[in-house]
């Protein structure tokens, strides 16, 4: 019960739960603490890394969900694939049109 209270849970609730439910709650609390620790470590690391920079990156590039490259449509993907395949075929044939031996 000491661990239950240390994790911020209501002591009265402890006695109404099964051992399985208590385990799930405590594992959830432990996972939350690990996640919070990792978030703080990530923040500290980036603060120091940015402090060492001579030129800061734009804030937009650091924010989650920042607009990136536009997704290609299926037609654009197909066009790129066709162009790539055509260039591969040209590389595999010599000028006379005969296929080059591998290697």
Name the structural class: mainly alpha
Number of helices: 5
Output mean pLDDT. Answer: 87
Number of strands: 0
Order of helical and strand elements = HHHHH
Unreliable segments (pLDDT under 50, ≥5 consecutive)? none
**Helix coverage percent:** 55-70%
Q: Strand fraction band?
A: under 5%
Largest sheet: none
Description of the molecule:
The chain has helices spanning 2-6, 11-14, 19-51, 59-62, 74-91. The chain has 103 residues and is mainly α.
How would you summarize what this structure contains?
The protein is an all-alpha fold and 103 residues long.
List keywords for this structure.
single chain; 103 residues; mainly alpha
Which helices and strands occur, and which strands form pairs?
Blueprint: H1 2-6, H2 11-14, H3 19-51, H4 59-62, H5 74-91
């Amino acid at each position: 019960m000491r661990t239950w209270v240390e994790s911020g849970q209501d002591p009265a609730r402890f006695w109404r739960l099964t051992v399985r439910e208590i385990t799930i709650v405590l594992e959830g609390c432990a996972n939350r603490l690990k996640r919070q620790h990792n978030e703080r470590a990530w923040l500290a690391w980036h603060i120091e890394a940015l402090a060492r920079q001579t030129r800061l990156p734009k804030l937009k590039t650091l924010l989650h969900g920042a607009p990136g490259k536009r997704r290609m449509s299926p037609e654009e993907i197909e066009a790129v694939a066709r162009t790539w395949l055509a260039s591969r075929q040209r590389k595999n044939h010599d000028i006379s049109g005969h296929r080059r031996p591998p290697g």
